[in-house]
Amino acid sequence: MSFDLEKLADEGSKSSGTCIEGFRGSSKGLFLAELAKKNPNSQILAITRSDESALTLADDCKFFMRISEKSRVRIYPSSEITPYSRISPEPELWAERIAVQSSLLSKEPAIVIASSDAIIRRIPPKSFIERGSFLIENGKPLNFDALLKYLSDFGYDDVGLVEEMGCFAKRGGIIDVWSPTLNEPLRIELDSDIVISIRPFNPASQRSKGSSETLKFAELLPVSEIPFDEKSRSLAAHRVRDRSDTPLTPGEKRALIESIHEGIAFSGIENLTPLFHKETATVFDYLAADAKVVIFDSGEVESSIEAFSKNVSELYHESLSSERIVAPEEILINSEDFFKNAWRFSSIFTGSFEEGVGEEAPLIAAIEGNADIRPMIAGHKSGQYMLSPLVALIRDWQKKGWQVVLNCHTAIQAQRLGDLFHTHGVEMVNFESSFDTLKDVETSFVKIMIGRLSSGFRWPDEKIAIVTDEEIFGEKISKKPHTARASEPFTSFAEIADGDLIVHEQHGIGRYRGLVNLTIEEKRGDYMLLEYLGSDKLYLPVYRLNLVGKYIGSGSDAPMLDKLGGIRWSNVQAKARREVGLIARELLKTYAERKLRPGFSFPEGGSDFNEFCAAFPYDETPDQTKTIEDVMRDMGENKPSDRLICGDVGYGKTEVAMRAAYRAIAADKQVAILVPTTVLALQHYENFLKRFAGTPASIGMLSRFRSKTDIKNTLEKLKTGAIDIAIGTHRILQDDVRFKNLGLLIIDEEHRFGVKHKERIKQMKSTVDVFSMTATPIPRTLNMSLMGIRDISVINTPPVDRQAVATYVTRFDEAVIRQAILKELARGGQIFFVHNRVETIGSMFDRLKGIIPEAKILLGHGKMREGALEKVMIDFLGKRADVLLCTTIIESGLDIPNANTIIVDRADTFGLAQLYQLRGRVGRSNIKAFAYLLTPDSKEITPIAKKRLSVLKRFTELGSGFQIAMHDLEFRGAGNILGSAQSGHINAIGYELYVKLLDRTVRKLKGAAVEEEINPELNLKVSAFLPEDYVPDTSARVELYRRLASREETADLEAMAGEISDRFGTLPKEAINLLSMMEIKIMATKLKIRQINFDGTQFSCQFDQSTPIDIEKLLKELSSGKVGYRIYPPDKLLIVAGNVEGDEEVLSAAKNSLSALFSYVSH
User: Fold this and answer.
1) What does the alpha-carbon distance between residue 275 and residue 237 come to, in Å, rounded to a whole number?
2) What pLDDT, on the 0 to 100 scale, is given for residue 555?
3) Partner of 274 for a Cys bridge, out of 43, 330, 692, 836, CB 3.0 to 4.6 A?
4) Which residues neighbour 425 within 8 Å (Cβ) at sequence distance 6 or greater?
5) Residue 480 has pLDDT above 50, yes or no
6) Which residues contact 746 (CB under 8 A, 6 or more apart)?
């Protein structure tokens, strides 16, 4: 006898030990949602076999719940790290665990979903969460020192800028903090010891949400499960000292005790949690007495627990980690204890049972999966009637009175699906109400519901069929939406350090030596100290920091310093200016000629094109959608297009190319796809074959991996038009390759082709539409400068979870390496192992074979013969090996979605951009990716390398470290976009100044008025700066000075004043003076005043000859008796200030005087 949903939920709510068989697809989520509905005030703990299945169940459950109920669902994550691996989990994971523990302790009716790995870990007792809670109330007193001690004791990092959870920053009477329970950080402001404001702020812009968002209170929770207060550290140290049967050596014990005493959160310390608490607990101990426990696929859960416990036990005996001071049974509970704990509550078990867990027979849910739908459609896929088999099924279900639901992840996909079914006469409606109201709606319409559902099912007892778009078109992988950064564009002064190279527009390349505060004529001010050749020094006032930029070139060689007053810099600038003019004119000429040339207008795609687009296995990102629109618009015009598409690997460029190719062959045109290497050719060929399967398109490949016979046949078919799409290396450019009707050329990484090949490409470009693709990120500033002389589309939206590659820094340990590789192999994946020394890579190969003999390892490095290296890469791409041991030759354009673990040996020897690039080789699919950065003993690592690794480990999209690495890559890539000849000039004057020159040149060539920039010199004898006790972090002060100096409108200055007071508190008088000084600078710039001096009674202004002030009008007024002004031709004006005292009056008088001059501006 089978049961419907309501009966199953009723039975599960009543008794303990209920067993249910038969759940398929997302019906587990439906059952969990119904159980929650029946028990609105109870806590429910749902346990699955893995982290992936827990996430899937959470999505499915939320899909079937009412909107008001979805917030009850919480994920309790596992640490993702096996004990004894010297690795600390990501802080966000621990924080989320603590947040869920706190939620359970407060008796909230949460639905907690977790994997068995997460549940079997022992955790701190409930008393830890209770004493680790810190309440801050608006309008109430706050002991500031007590708060700082709490943050230190409970795992918060003291940082300069709060960009990530688990950090805090203090500045005067303001403290920023990001607690684990909060979605965004808080800014707490005090007046004396009273809290006057608690407001959320944006970690990207660092701006708070405003007074309307002020909170009444905030509760802080521990960041880690380890307390760092003196009492807990002392307890842990004593326990280590007292353990005589430990496998640690006396030296290891002493080092561990010392680290614990000093409160050092070394890598892997989380696995010592039992030492820091008098006793430990389990998640079951946190549950309310009336909680429900549901164990899905209980047999698999039991197997998973036993396998994990066995793995931990093996690593305990193999590892060299100091974590061995704690035995496995102190960290984990076994499967027997797990099920005993579950039986303490009203429990439900699902899976396959020969007999019930208790005396009762299992309840049956007669549910069918949808595994048959996709093969049915694929087998029938011909022309525009591919959906006919599904349409027949739907009509059959409707005849039986069933509700039919089609699930789509996005509104775009829902619209496509609706359009496709409409051509088959199937009526659809968008159903936006909650799922449990479906029974009240008529069945004649198919309902489209938007949301995340893992898979569909058919449940005859419920008279319902649910089909997902993945089950129709193949797997869909949604890209996570990325919120645009709210902060200003990156400034190159983020994290500036002593010794960095700086480019001054007038004096050239010098070395940054810090900010110095000087007193001149009893007035204080901050100056940037720059050191030039011969130890010459330049003290640059901070209001003129818009004249300097951090030097970033496109190569690796550092440039020579300039000499103050020398002629080298002016010569270098002049040469760069000439070359910039040449390339700009060439680009503009090519662009104009192409626009005049007649081309082919490709007709718009029909229903078959729409079906092709609908089968794309991702949700298009906004950038990708815009790029597709750009390309489709180009193809529709009757002139040949030439568009550059920029975006990292995995960002979706290839799909843009595929849609363009489909539209071309639908118009009876042929497509050539040109790539720089045979490996890339093979990958593109395989991807195109897969994507175009079931379409009439014929695809061929030309490369030296093809036999002579194959190439001969392909060439013949190209001549006759029997091949629609030809993919190949430079072989495509040879004279014997002739197309019957070539209409579209797609070029991948054009900058990697040689001069001869580029000439041939240029000939082909003249007659067909061209789309070039590059994985080189193009700087936004360069893109803006080239607008109007080069068609460029940029795809900046990252691929799935790109920013969330779990990154771990750990010492080289064979047991850790083995575990990392086994973990990846267990899920069917592949591993990159980067060892960047060719002379020792052979011995590392032998060592790896010893560490993991069951894995097949390939060896690849840059000194191998080209053909041999290609074979290695193709074998790895074809999954004929598990591990690729290689130098940094992992090809940047290659997309190997099955490789999701990268291990980097001696990561301390790599640059930040290199490490970022290497880590970007994994994490390109919807599977969680891992990066292990191996280092020697910490004593052997330089402080700079330690900082670099720390930045990479903490990489977030918000972090300035991430921006630095990205921009480093972009600037290197600027030479690729403009041509190698320009790289030398970028290196000579620095990227920022180069782009500034290019921008001005392009605007001039396009006929815009480009005036010489005026940078006024102000000698007003006032104290104007940001005091160090107001903005303590030097880098933050430099960046603020640079941004203030770059403002061009007073409204922008006012916005920055609001930001500074929001971040650092009430503006001191010196900061107010600085803002007034910047306002005077903006006014003087607009009036084209080169210099303003104040001698105590009058202002002396020196004008540029281009000043907009009508001098004749001013002279006329002076001759008619106007007082207060004196003119000294040709360019000096004296303005009498009168009796002014103090900085504020001087600045006010200067502003009033300049304001009055605006009345003489000629319009």
Assistant:
1) 8
2) 56
3) 330
4) 391
5) no
6) 657, 660, 661, 671, 672, 673, 674, 770, 771, 772, 773
pLDDT-derived band at 1070, boundaries 50, 70, 90: very high
The whole-number average pLDDT for the span 186-202 is: 93
pLDDT higher than 50, residue 958: no
> What was the pLDDT predicted at 381?
53
- 839 in helix, strand or coil? helix
| CA distances to 366, 400, 576 from 462, in Å | 10, 12, 74
Q: In what order do the strands lie in the sheet with 769-774?
A: 699-702, 725-728, 670-674, 742-748, 769-774, 642-646, 791-794
How far is Cα 665 from Cα 673, in angstroms, rounded to an integer? 13
Question: Is the pLDDT confidence value at 382 over 60?
Answer: no
Question: What is the number of H-type helices and E-type strands within the chain?
Answer: 38, 43
DSSP-assigned states of every residue in 747-807: EE-GGGS-HHHHHHHHHHHTTSEEEEEE-SPPPHHHHHHHTTTSEEEE--S--TTGGG-EE
**Residue 361 DSSP label:** P
CA–CA separation, 282 and 1080 (whole Å): 64
The Cα–Cα gap between 532 and 1027 comes to 27
User: What 3-state DSSP class applies to 886?
Assistant: strand
Q: Provide the pLDDT for residue 975.
A: 57
pLDDT reported for residue 27: 96
Q: Are 729 and 705 in contact (CB under 8 A)?
A: no
Q: Please name the residue ranges forming H helices in 862-959.
A: 866-877, 912-919, 943-953
**Domains defined along the chain, listed by start:** 5-127+263-364 (3.40.50.11180), 134-220 (3.30.2060.10), 369-473 (3.40.50.11140), 597-775 (3.40.50.300), 802-956 (3.40.50.300), 1044-1160 (3.90.1150.50)
Cα–Cα–Cα angle for 754, 756, 758, rounded to 5 degrees: 65
Rounded Cα–Cα distance for residues 151 and 155 (Å): 6
Element of type H or E holding 363: strand 363-364
β-pair type (368-369, 457-459): antiparallel
Longest dimension (CA), the chain: 113
Distance CA(399)–CA(480), nearest Å, equals: 39
Structure tokens at 764: 């082909």
Between CA 779 and CA 785 the distance in angstroms is 10
pLDDT of residue 821: 95
Q: Which residues contact 286 (CB under 8 A, 6 or more apart)?
A: 101, 104, 105, 126
- The most confident of the ranges 371-385, 430-444, 1070-1084 is 1070-1084
- Strand 670-674 and strand 742-748: the pairing is parallel
Element housing 44 (H / E): strand 44-48
Q: What pLDDT score does 441 carry?
A: 82
Kindly report, residue by residue over 686-725, the tens digit of the pLDDT: 999 999 988 889 999 998 878 889 999 999 999 999 999 9
Tell me the Cα Rg of the chain: 34
Give the containing element (helix H, strand E) for 405: strand 403-408
Rounded Cα distance between 1151 and 1136, Å, is: 13
Element (H, E) at 588: helix 568-596
Task: Write out the E strands in 542-607.
Answer: 548-550
Average pLDDT in the 170-176 region? 91
